[in-house]
Design a protein that fits this description.
Largest sheet: 7 strands, mixed
Bound molecules: biotin
Distance between the termini: 41 Å
Order of helices and strands: EHEEHEEEEHHHHEEEEE
Shape: globular
Number of strands: 12
Helix content: 25-40%
Number of helices: 6
Amino acid sequence: MLFKEEIHYEVESTQKLAVKIAKSQHNAHGTVIIAEKQTKGLGRTGRRWESPVGGLYLSVIIQKPLPIKLFHGFSVRLGLEMAKLLEEKFSLPFKVKWPNDIMLNGKKIGGILIDMNAQNEEINYLVVGIGFNVNIRVQTLSDETRNIATSLLEAKGERVSIKLVKDLILRAVANVMEELETNNLRDLKQEWKERSLTFGQKIFTELFGEGAECIEKGITDSGDLIIELDGKEEIISNGDITLIR
Ligand code: BTN
Protein backbone atom coordinates (compact mmCIF):
# COMPACT_ATOMS: atom_id res chain seq x y z
CA MET A 1 0.00 0.00 0.00
CA LEU A 2 1.31 3.45 -0.96
CA PHE A 3 0.89 6.24 1.56
CA LYS A 4 0.63 9.98 0.93
CA GLU A 5 1.51 11.78 4.14
CA GLU A 6 0.09 15.17 4.99
CA ILE A 7 1.83 16.60 8.03
CA HIS A 8 0.36 19.35 10.22
CA TYR A 9 1.73 21.00 13.31
CA GLU A 10 -1.59 21.40 15.11
CA VAL A 11 -5.10 20.24 14.28
CA GLU A 12 -8.25 19.66 16.32
CA SER A 13 -8.22 16.00 15.38
CA THR A 14 -6.51 14.15 12.52
CA GLN A 15 -9.50 11.79 12.57
CA LYS A 16 -12.01 14.54 12.05
CA LEU A 17 -9.94 15.97 9.19
CA ALA A 18 -9.40 12.57 7.55
CA VAL A 19 -13.12 11.68 7.74
CA LYS A 20 -13.95 14.99 6.08
CA ILE A 21 -11.50 14.22 3.24
CA ALA A 22 -12.73 10.62 2.90
CA LYS A 23 -16.32 11.87 2.57
CA SER A 24 -15.58 14.51 -0.03
CA GLN A 25 -12.85 12.90 -2.17
CA HIS A 26 -12.92 9.55 -3.86
CA ASN A 27 -9.25 9.22 -4.65
CA ALA A 28 -7.92 9.54 -1.11
CA HIS A 29 -6.88 5.91 -0.57
CA GLY A 30 -3.58 5.89 1.30
CA THR A 31 -3.77 9.50 2.50
CA VAL A 32 -2.34 9.81 5.99
CA ILE A 33 -3.11 12.88 8.09
CA ILE A 34 -0.43 13.36 10.73
CA ALA A 35 -0.20 16.03 13.42
CA GLU A 36 2.41 16.91 16.00
CA LYS A 37 -0.35 17.84 18.43
CA GLN A 38 -4.14 17.80 18.58
CA THR A 39 -6.36 20.21 20.46
CA LYS A 40 -9.42 17.92 20.44
CA GLY A 41 -8.05 14.40 20.02
CA LEU A 42 -10.85 11.83 19.91
CA GLY A 43 -10.81 8.54 21.74
CA ARG A 44 -13.25 5.64 21.54
CA THR A 45 -16.76 5.92 22.97
CA GLY A 46 -16.70 9.71 23.05
CA ARG A 47 -13.62 9.97 25.25
CA ARG A 48 -10.89 12.44 24.52
CA TRP A 49 -7.32 11.51 23.60
CA GLU A 50 -4.71 13.70 25.23
CA SER A 51 -2.44 14.81 22.44
CA PRO A 52 0.53 16.96 23.48
CA VAL A 53 3.67 17.38 21.37
CA GLY A 54 5.79 14.24 21.71
CA GLY A 55 3.06 11.79 20.75
CA LEU A 56 2.21 10.33 17.36
CA TYR A 57 -1.24 11.13 15.98
CA LEU A 58 -2.27 9.87 12.59
CA SER A 59 -5.33 8.87 10.59
CA VAL A 60 -5.10 6.69 7.49
CA ILE A 61 -7.80 6.73 4.79
CA ILE A 62 -8.70 3.37 3.25
CA GLN A 63 -10.94 3.66 0.21
CA LYS A 64 -11.23 0.25 -1.38
CA PRO A 65 -14.49 -1.36 -2.47
CA LEU A 66 -13.93 -4.43 -0.30
CA PRO A 67 -16.65 -6.45 1.45
CA ILE A 68 -17.47 -5.03 4.86
CA LYS A 69 -17.22 -8.43 6.48
CA LEU A 70 -13.49 -8.57 5.69
CA PHE A 71 -13.06 -5.67 8.08
CA HIS A 72 -14.62 -7.36 11.08
CA GLY A 73 -11.77 -7.62 13.48
CA PHE A 74 -9.63 -5.14 11.55
CA SER A 75 -8.59 -3.25 14.67
CA VAL A 76 -7.78 -6.46 16.55
CA ARG A 77 -5.57 -7.60 13.65
CA LEU A 78 -3.94 -4.19 13.48
CA GLY A 79 -3.31 -4.07 17.23
CA LEU A 80 -1.64 -7.48 17.13
CA GLU A 81 0.46 -6.53 14.10
CA MET A 82 1.53 -3.24 15.68
CA ALA A 83 2.48 -4.95 18.94
CA LYS A 84 4.52 -7.54 17.04
CA LEU A 85 6.46 -5.01 14.93
CA LEU A 86 7.02 -2.73 17.93
CA GLU A 87 8.33 -5.62 19.99
CA GLU A 88 10.76 -6.62 17.22
CA LYS A 89 12.05 -3.06 17.01
CA PHE A 90 12.21 -2.02 20.65
CA SER A 91 12.61 -5.38 22.43
CA LEU A 92 9.80 -4.48 24.84
CA PRO A 93 6.90 -6.80 25.77
CA PHE A 94 3.97 -5.06 24.04
CA LYS A 95 0.53 -6.53 24.75
CA VAL A 96 -2.97 -5.88 23.47
CA LYS A 97 -6.16 -5.31 25.42
CA TRP A 98 -9.52 -5.89 23.79
CA PRO A 99 -10.84 -4.31 21.70
CA ASN A 100 -7.94 -2.18 20.53
CA ASP A 101 -5.52 -0.92 23.13
CA ILE A 102 -1.77 -1.35 22.86
CA MET A 103 -0.33 -1.95 26.30
CA LEU A 104 3.11 -1.97 27.84
CA ASN A 105 3.90 -3.01 31.41
CA GLY A 106 0.17 -3.11 32.21
CA LYS A 107 -0.41 0.47 31.01
CA LYS A 108 -1.86 1.93 27.86
CA ILE A 109 0.64 3.22 25.30
CA GLY A 110 -1.51 3.39 22.16
CA GLY A 111 -5.06 3.25 20.91
CA ILE A 112 -6.94 2.71 17.65
CA LEU A 113 -10.12 4.46 16.56
CA ILE A 114 -12.00 3.37 13.43
CA ASP A 115 -14.61 5.32 11.50
CA MET A 116 -16.30 3.30 8.83
CA ASN A 117 -18.79 4.05 6.10
CA ALA A 118 -20.29 1.32 3.95
CA GLN A 119 -23.04 0.78 1.41
CA ASN A 120 -24.49 -2.48 0.06
CA GLU A 121 -22.07 -4.56 2.14
CA GLU A 122 -19.07 -2.76 0.64
CA ILE A 123 -16.72 -0.26 2.17
CA ASN A 124 -16.94 3.37 1.07
CA TYR A 125 -14.17 4.36 3.40
CA LEU A 126 -12.47 3.39 6.58
CA VAL A 127 -10.49 5.94 8.57
CA VAL A 128 -7.99 4.29 10.88
CA GLY A 129 -6.85 6.63 13.65
CA ILE A 130 -3.89 5.74 15.79
CA GLY A 131 -2.53 7.57 18.80
CA PHE A 132 0.76 6.47 20.31
CA ASN A 133 2.68 7.83 23.29
CA VAL A 134 6.23 8.16 22.04
CA ASN A 135 8.15 10.93 23.81
CA ILE A 136 5.60 11.86 26.44
CA ARG A 137 6.36 12.23 30.14
CA VAL A 138 3.32 10.76 31.87
CA GLN A 139 3.52 13.30 34.71
CA THR A 140 2.52 15.95 32.17
CA LEU A 141 -0.79 14.16 31.43
CA SER A 142 -4.05 14.81 33.30
CA ASP A 143 -4.68 13.26 36.72
CA GLU A 144 -7.08 10.70 35.29
CA THR A 145 -4.65 9.51 32.59
CA ARG A 146 -1.29 9.71 34.35
CA ASN A 147 -1.60 6.46 36.29
CA ILE A 148 -2.98 4.33 33.49
CA ALA A 149 -0.71 5.47 30.65
CA THR A 150 2.88 4.92 29.67
CA SER A 151 5.13 5.96 26.77
CA LEU A 152 8.20 4.74 24.92
CA LEU A 153 10.19 7.47 26.64
CA GLU A 154 9.13 6.17 30.07
CA ALA A 155 9.83 2.57 29.18
CA LYS A 156 13.19 3.10 27.49
CA GLY A 157 14.41 6.05 29.51
CA GLU A 158 15.33 7.90 26.33
CA ARG A 159 13.69 9.67 23.45
CA VAL A 160 12.73 7.65 20.40
CA SER A 161 12.29 8.85 16.80
CA ILE A 162 8.60 9.59 16.17
CA LYS A 163 9.22 9.03 12.45
CA LEU A 164 10.49 5.53 13.16
CA VAL A 165 7.34 4.69 15.12
CA LYS A 166 5.18 6.25 12.40
CA ASP A 167 6.87 4.13 9.68
CA LEU A 168 6.43 1.02 11.76
CA ILE A 169 2.74 1.69 12.40
CA LEU A 170 2.12 2.38 8.71
CA ARG A 171 3.87 -0.89 7.88
CA ALA A 172 1.47 -2.65 10.27
CA VAL A 173 -1.50 -1.03 8.47
CA ALA A 174 -0.07 -2.11 5.08
CA ASN A 175 0.47 -5.68 6.30
CA VAL A 176 -3.09 -6.02 7.56
CA MET A 177 -4.47 -4.48 4.35
CA GLU A 178 -2.49 -6.99 2.31
CA GLU A 179 -4.00 -9.84 4.32
CA LEU A 180 -7.46 -8.47 3.60
CA GLU A 181 -6.93 -7.74 -0.07
CA THR A 182 -5.46 -11.16 -0.79
CA ASN A 183 -8.18 -12.73 1.38
CA ASN A 184 -5.47 -14.43 3.31
CA LEU A 185 -6.61 -13.84 6.87
CA ARG A 186 -4.38 -15.48 9.42
CA ASP A 187 -5.81 -17.33 12.39
CA LEU A 188 -5.79 -14.99 15.38
CA LYS A 189 -6.37 -17.44 18.21
CA GLN A 190 -2.82 -18.43 19.08
CA GLU A 191 -1.42 -14.94 18.60
CA TRP A 192 -4.16 -13.52 20.79
CA LYS A 193 -3.50 -16.05 23.52
CA GLU A 194 0.16 -15.03 23.62
CA ARG A 195 -0.41 -11.32 23.34
CA SER A 196 -3.62 -10.49 25.23
CA LEU A 197 -3.00 -8.81 28.57
CA THR A 198 -6.15 -10.37 29.99
CA PHE A 199 -6.12 -13.87 28.46
CA GLY A 200 -7.31 -16.40 31.03
CA GLN A 201 -7.73 -13.65 33.61
CA LYS A 202 -10.66 -12.32 35.54
CA ILE A 203 -12.12 -9.26 33.85
CA PHE A 204 -14.98 -6.88 34.40
CA THR A 205 -17.29 -5.93 31.55
CA GLU A 206 -20.78 -4.70 30.83
CA LEU A 207 -23.07 -7.48 29.71
CA PHE A 208 -26.83 -7.22 29.14
CA GLY A 209 -26.62 -3.70 30.53
CA GLU A 210 -25.06 -4.80 33.81
CA GLY A 211 -21.52 -5.04 35.12
CA ALA A 212 -20.26 -8.61 35.16
CA GLU A 213 -17.17 -10.43 36.37
CA CYS A 214 -16.04 -13.06 33.94
CA ILE A 215 -12.98 -14.78 32.47
CA GLU A 216 -11.35 -13.90 29.17
CA LYS A 217 -11.26 -17.04 27.02
CA GLY A 218 -10.01 -15.76 23.67
CA ILE A 219 -10.96 -14.15 20.40
CA THR A 220 -13.02 -15.16 17.35
CA ASP A 221 -11.67 -14.66 13.84
CA SER A 222 -13.92 -11.66 13.49
CA GLY A 223 -12.33 -10.01 16.50
CA ASP A 224 -15.10 -10.60 19.04
CA LEU A 225 -14.15 -11.45 22.59
CA ILE A 226 -15.00 -14.85 24.06
CA ILE A 227 -15.70 -14.76 27.77
CA GLU A 228 -16.88 -17.21 30.36
CA LEU A 229 -19.65 -16.10 32.66
CA ASP A 230 -21.08 -18.43 35.30
CA GLY A 231 -19.58 -21.42 33.48
CA LYS A 232 -21.06 -20.45 30.10
CA GLU A 233 -19.26 -19.00 27.09
CA GLU A 234 -20.54 -15.73 25.68
CA ILE A 235 -19.32 -13.57 22.83
CA ILE A 236 -19.09 -9.80 23.06
CA SER A 237 -18.61 -7.64 19.99
CA ASN A 238 -18.44 -4.21 21.51
CA GLY A 239 -17.67 -2.68 24.83
CA ASP A 240 -14.76 -2.30 27.18
CA ILE A 241 -13.09 -4.60 29.65
CA THR A 242 -11.10 -4.00 32.82
CA LEU A 243 -8.63 -6.40 34.34
CA ILE A 244 -9.48 -7.38 37.91
CA ARG A 245 -6.31 -7.53 39.96
C1 BTN B 1 -8.76 5.02 22.03
O1 BTN B 1 -9.70 5.53 22.64
O2 BTN B 1 -8.02 4.18 22.57
C2 BTN B 1 -8.47 5.44 20.61
C3 BTN B 1 -7.59 6.64 20.54
C4 BTN B 1 -7.30 7.09 19.13
C5 BTN B 1 -6.54 8.40 19.10
C6 BTN B 1 -6.12 8.77 17.71
S1 BTN B 1 -4.90 10.05 17.68
C7 BTN B 1 -5.05 10.17 15.95
C8 BTN B 1 -6.52 10.07 15.64
N1 BTN B 1 -7.15 11.38 15.73
C9 BTN B 1 -8.01 11.44 16.77
O3 BTN B 1 -8.67 12.46 17.08
N2 BTN B 1 -8.08 10.27 17.39
C10 BTN B 1 -7.21 9.27 16.77
